[in-house]
Write a structure and sequence with these properties.
heterodimer, A: about 450 residues, alpha+beta, Uridine Diphospho-n-acetylenolpyruvylglucosamine Reductase, domain 2, Uridine Diphospho-n-acetylenolpyruvylglucosamine Reductase, domain 3, Vanillyl-alcohol Oxidase, Chain A, domain 3, 8-stranded antiparallel sheet, 5-stranded antiparallel sheet, 14 helices, globular, B: about 400 residues, alpha/beta, Rossmann fold, 5-stranded parallel sheet, 4-stranded parallel sheet, 9 strands
């Protein structure tokens, strides 16, 4: 047995470490299209102290370390590109605190979205968090580490904007609290009025530290959720429709989607409008406001509201299981998407690009845009499904996604949760001084370059 | 020797997205896969198994004791089948796991505990390695007669025949049925293993032999209707025996008792108790029998039925399915399914866990002891509760 393995077992116990071929094979990949790379060890800590000791060991021995939630980013962010240790965080799954009046929760670094949702439903039914449409095993820490979005992103911004404090194990092994928990027992602010150090970690994809605790804002959970579906076949009108809807300042969530299958959806752009209320009166008032806002498009016969009764249950489901179902459309178990953050006014160009790439590469597409922060930007997903048993199709999807990222960068967009190649392109395009600053931050926080190496690497 | 692996559903294994919905109950309150809870690696989850099976079929990983442990730690609770988001594909999950285990059996690379289980069934006809003539001992003193021309065969299975907890359950149910005038007979020392676990563990040859012998025996004795003590037996009699020509009307004892209560053939005095009910996987998820046990409990005046957080279709397995009752691959650690389930029962404030399966009865009884909760929680089968509450 190697000295490293012995040390890891000493820290985590026999059941907390594996170098068996089965675990190494599984943790060498994610469900996306990037090639796997074997780790040397897989570990699963239960405490912050165990995380700290493993990181100290890795730092001392210069061993790469890759933190992992459920591995559902799909862009290879948990693939150990340079081997080393994959750290599965899911055994750190406790919900440590809910401050009801201050509306925040504090959870351990491996707590899943699904478990927090169920916990709030059971114990604080009038509170909710911004649940993404990722599968429920996706972790809260991983979601904020990559600037994830959720049901409340239209109202309140990226899920990472909703962080109220962090506990991070730095690459040197120091345990650091960020925001109000660095001064006292409360987790109500990740930064303000201090210098906001959370920016050293949020969006860094696990390259600057490992989140062992996350404070997260909670929001009122209204008694009633409702949904309307507005449809148009004129893509150029989508930005104006969104503009009118966001002007209302009363929507929970706003998504625009288009897909070729089933055929009833082909060539139409569907705007799913979610709104909430505590009374039927409030709901009907909001419904009237929504209808009134879009009446102009109905009058010109450019769009109309579609009956949602058949799809209502599916549309209101959280998380939406149908998102994962897309992977089974080509009966192949996979899909991946490029999801740039970009201006809503660019929707028509992005939509055209999706159709162009799908036709060019003979692949199945689906696209959903989620509006961010009341209309300042959108996440535009360019999704392609693939058959995992068809390497040629997977390669076509890979090329199409590369071209999608290229397009997004040309359009002035920002790639979301970019894979290591997309990160390189982004860094190349970045202002040199910004790139230099990124390098300074990374170099200072992670002098040995052990944290998720291959990602956000500035040379 | 190089072994080329192949399973019947090998052409669909790649369709698993490993999204992880299969690990949860419908409302995501906790992970609902006992082997994932016990071991904590993604490889021990249904998606992990699917991906490893694909790697193994593609010869990217080899058969190993660890691979076999991962496969045999599955308790066949069917939660993954119910929660997978892919229509139709989801129905293949249990088949794929079972077919892979069957390949390991053929290859001769199964965990020693599984091998010992098969050997015991082959040599002794039961997993306890006890003589066949002792199989009917549980019925001594009950007055139950050997099956001849009664309306129902009361089939108790290996656990009901040999295990202390199971025997108690068999006696209670058998006596109660007889007492309220149900025409039942037993096979006693002629009864043999039903084969449900043998099939799940992948020994298809041995299973076929057991099933064919049982079917022949039942037909020779002109058995038409069967009441099972054990939901595992109910499952195999209902789903697998017909494929081999064994068509019988099969009921679980709770279905019969619920019917008798409706017909007012069982009357109750007041019985004050706070009870939670644990759904056995082979009664619930596998055969969708959720209501009868609850109807029985609700019909007892004074009895308060409180549900555990995970119940019915979302119930958490006791960890005894898929042969684990005998092979104990999940182990008895803090995160073993039976201990988690006992802690969940305690959260309800109930003083009694009602069970309807001898495997669950044993698993939960053991867990109550390990958790040192014997003064707070009693594990009782539904028939015992009925007997306590019956009007004298």
């Amino acid at each position: 047995m190697s000295d490293i393995l012995k040390s890891l077992i000493e820290i985590l116990g026999e059941r907390g470490v594996s170098n068996a071929p089965e675990e190494l094979w599984f943790y060498s990949r994610d469900p996306g299209i990037l090639a796997p790379h074997l780790p040397d060890y897989v570990v699963a800590p239960k405490t912050t102290e165990q995380v700290q000791k493993v990181v100290q060991l890795a730092n001392r021995e210069k061993i790469p370390i890759v933190p992992m939630g459920n591995g559902m980013a799909l862009t290879g962010l948990v693939i150990p590109l340079k081997g080393g240790i994959v750290m599965d965080m899911k055994r750190m799954d406790k919900i440590l605190e809910v401050n009801e009046k201050a509306r925040y929760a504090v959870v351990e670094g491996g707590t899943s979205q699904g478990v927090l949702k169920a916990y709030l439903q059971d114990h604080y039914p009038h509170l909710r968090h911004s649940l993404p449409d990722a599968p429920p095993a996706a972790t809260i820490a991983a979601n904020v580490a990559l600037h994830g979005q959720g049901r409340l992103t239209q109202q309140y911004g990226f899920n990472s904007d909703m962080v109220t404090g962090l506990e991070v194990v730095l690459p040197t092994g120091d345990i650091c609290r960020i925001g109000s928990p660095s001064l006292g027992p409360y987790w109500f602010s990740k930064g303000p009025t201090l210098p906001d150090l959370s920016g050293l970690f949020l969006g860094w994809l696990g390259t600057t530290g490992i989140f062992t605790k996350v404070g997260l804002k909670l929001y009122p959970n209204k008694k009633i959720r409702e949904v309307e579906l507005f449809v148009t076949d004129r893509v150029e009108l989508v930005p104006e429709i969104i503009y009118k809807l966001t002007h209302l300042e009363m929507l929970e969530d706003l998504n625009v989607w288009f897909q070729p299958k089933p055929l009833m959806f082909k060539d139409n752009y569907h705007i799913t409008i979610y709104f909430t209320g505590d009374t039927e009166e409030e709901i009907e008032f909001k419904r009237k406001m929504i209808w009134d806002a879009l009446q102009v498009f109905i009058d010109t016969k450019d769009g109309g509201f579609m009956g949602v009764q058949v799809m209502k249950e599916q549309l209101l489901e959280m998380p939406q299981r149908s998102v994962a179902e897309f992977a089974d459309v080509p009966r192949g178990g996979g899909f991946e998407y490029s999801g740039p953050i970009t201006l809503i006014e660019h929707f028509p160009q992005y939509a055209a690009k999706v159709l162009e790439l799908a036709a060019k590469h003979d692949i199945l597409y689906a696209s959903t845009a989620r509006i961010i922060s009341g209309g300042h930007a959108m996440m535009f997903s360019i999704s392609f499904a693939f058959n995992r048993a068809d390497p040629a199709m997977m390669n076509r999807v890979k090329i199409a996604l590369e071209e999608a990222t290229e397009f997004a960068l040309e359009m002035g967009g920002i790639p979301w949760k970019p894979n290591f190649m997309e990160q390189k392109r982004t860094l190349e395009k970045m202002d040199p001084n910004t790139r230099k600053l990124l390098r300074m931050v990374k170099k200072n926080l992670d002098p040995q370059g052990i944290m998720n190496p291959g990602n956000w690497e500035v040379n | 020797m190089e072994y080329v692996h192949s399973i019947e559903h090998g052409d669909v294994v790649h369709r698993c997205f490993r999204c992880g919905y299969c690990k949860f109950p419908r409302d995501y309150v906790d992970f609902n896969c006992p082997s994932y809870k016990a071991f904590g690696w993604d490889t021990y989850s249904p998606g992990g198994r699917m991906w490893l099976i694909r790697a193994w079929l593609n010869d990217e990983i080899k058969t190993s004791p660890h691979f076999a442990e991962i496969l045999y730690s599955c308790v066949a609770c069917d939660n993954c089948k119910d929660q997978c988001v892919f229509p139709r594909f989801k129905d293949f999950l249990p088949d794929i796991f079972q077919e892979t285990k069957a390949e390991l059996v053929t290859e001769g690379k199964i965990p020693p505990k599984v091998r010992d289980y098969f050997k015991a069934i082959t040599v002794n006809g039961n997993p306890y390695k006890l003589p066949q003539e002792e199989r009917g001992k549980w019925a001594e003193g009950t007055g139950l007669q050997e099956f001849s021309d009664q309306e129902y065969l009361f089939y108790v299975g290996c656990v009901g025949s040999y295990d202390e907890v199971g025997q108690k359950m068999a006696r209670t149910v058998g006596t109660l049925l007889s007492d309220v005038g149900v025409s039942v007979g037993i096979l006693g020392s002629e009864e043999t293993c039903d084969g449900n676990e043998v099939k799940i563990l992948g020994e298809t040859g041995l299973f076929t032999k057991l099933a064919e012998d049982n079917i022949q025996k039942f037909k020779t004795k002109d058995v038409q209707k069967i009441i099972t003590l054990d939901p595992h037996a109910l499952n195999v009699f209902k789903k697998d025996y017909p494929k081999l020509g064994g068509n019988f009307d099969v009921f679980h004892y709770t279905e019969i008792l619920a019917g008798l209560i409706k017909e007012k053939r069982i009357a109750f005095s007041a019985y004050k108790a706070k009870v939670t009910y644990h759904d056995p996987c082979y009664l619930g998820r596998h055969n969708l029998i959720y209501a009868p046990p609850r109807e029985i409990l609700k019909s007892i005046s004074g009895l308060e039925l409180v549900e555990m957080r995970r119940n019915s279709m979302n119930a958490f397995c006791c960890g005894g399915g898929g042969g684990n009752f005998f092979t104990d691959i999940l182990g008895a650690g803090e995160n073993s399914a039976n201990r988690i389930r006992v802690r969940e029962a305690l959260e309800t404030g109930a003083r009694i866990i009602a069970v309807a399966c001898p495997n669950c009865a044993k698993m939960l009884t053991d867990a109550v002891k390990v958790e040192e909760q014997e003064d707070k929680l009693e594990v009782l089968n539904i028939a015992e509760i009925v007997c306590r509450a019956r009007a004298k």
